[in-house]
Give the backbone structure.
Amino acid sequence: MDRRIIGVETEFGVHYSHPGSRPLTPEEVARYLFRPVVEWGRSSNVFIPNGSRLYLDVGSHPEYATAECSTLDELIATDKAGEIIMQRLIDSATASMREDGFEGTIYLYKNNADSAGNSYGSHENYLIPRTVEFRRLSEALIPFLVTRQLYAGAGTWVTRPSEDAFGAAAQPHFAFSQRADHVWEGVSSATTRSRPIINTRDEPHADAADYRRLHVIVGDSNMSETTQLVRFGATDLVLRMIEAGWSLGDHQMENPIRSIRQVSHDLSGTAQLNLRSGRHRSALQLQEHYLEQATRFVAAHGPHHDRVAAVLDLWERSLEAVRTQDFTGIDTEIDWAIKHRFLTRYRDRNGLADDAPRLDQLDLSYHDITPGRGLFALLQSRGAAARVLTDDQVQEAIDAPPSTTRACLRGRFITEARAAGQEYSVDWTTLKFNDRPMMSVSTKDPFATTSERLDELLATLPQPSAADDPTRSGPSSIRPV
Amino acid sequence: MPQQQSGSSSQREEDLGPGPAPAPGGGAAASQANTADLDSLLDEIDSVLETNAEEFVKGFVQKGGQ
């Protein structure tokens, strides 16, 4: 597909800390966090004016699902905007909790595991043509997904190596991926019980005759914009090759779940992975192969968007860094390398052992979304983490939906309905006023940015009179947070 | 809806001071350019972390998600 709909769903970890006082459960904190959302939308599961979805998911995880995006810049901006929206929820919850006598601190982590080993996800959705045979696609894709952590991993300090991590060093060490140890199957319909790499739940939110959804739930939550660029950009390129019937060879793994752990716990990238064919390949070899194929594919077909060169460049430099074990070429651009650089220097400067709890705490802090406190945010503010976007682009995405997909129809509908005080219902493919259900607008084409039916529906709203206070109908008064 | 940072985090921002503009392209050159700044953050990060690291980390337990 030349243009592809991509979205990412992020579950955040909730942590309330107030040393010496009664702890609050994540459920209690989540209720405070979502109080303004419920006041705004009468539900803890709402679509917001930027077209994205904000809700409380399994395990009281605040979750943010980006609107449909068709460019990498839109996707990264919309995802990062979600962090700011969550921060606003922290601010209002902190104030409400103070009123109730709770003086502690709320932390929201954009990471993938708590201290007890419970995991939660960063789920990618890629729209793919129904004509591509899913079994062929997943067989070709899994070896790529198992090994892309060389640049897509968020990194983690493993202070207490567990015995069940296949191939893991027995000593405390740094690993590419936090999520890798929490997936248990290649392809399945499970989510929480036995997490797969690819989940088969097929919800295209579009015409199912034309499209299906590819739901990848193996990824780490990324903080770095540049890491996101190469993660989504490289995955999209590999999907393009598969869709085009470009031969990627047979690299099916004998045991993808063992392999993904081997890769994560081996920063050298050279651990030999058993393939079903009886051959062996390292993560580096496999990724070099995919990169070479992608480079040839782009040379043959031309770049399909203006970030392709940047994606290929960072992909190549990441593999070079792992190959040479000199991470300085990517240590402002790839999450695991940014984190590794800071944590190892902190350890060395303070003479800490590799199992020091402070390293666990810094690992968590890297994913703390609060500006001025979270380690990644501090690093970025000091130029130690590169950007793809400007602050203005991210700020804009808090209220503005992506302009290249139907998300802009949803955003417009929500904004205008609320300005008119009209009761409405929204999901990914339907927009309707509750008192006119027969006039509901179906938005089955995710690429459609105009809709005559929506124009007609909105034309039935009373026009705001000039006497109305403009600040009352402006966008800032109608966002939930 | 309160739009301002909570008191504690804005206080911390002041403590640490504003940094230079983010590196546009990253890479080795940028890494070297901000080494001094990273060094200062290595010293200052302790002031934003809660003191009992072990207790703090163990206190973060949540049910699994998807």
User: Anything to note?
Assistant: Confidence is low (pLDDT under 50) at residues 1-31 of chain B. The longest helix of chain B spans residues 7-16. Chain B has four helices and no strands.
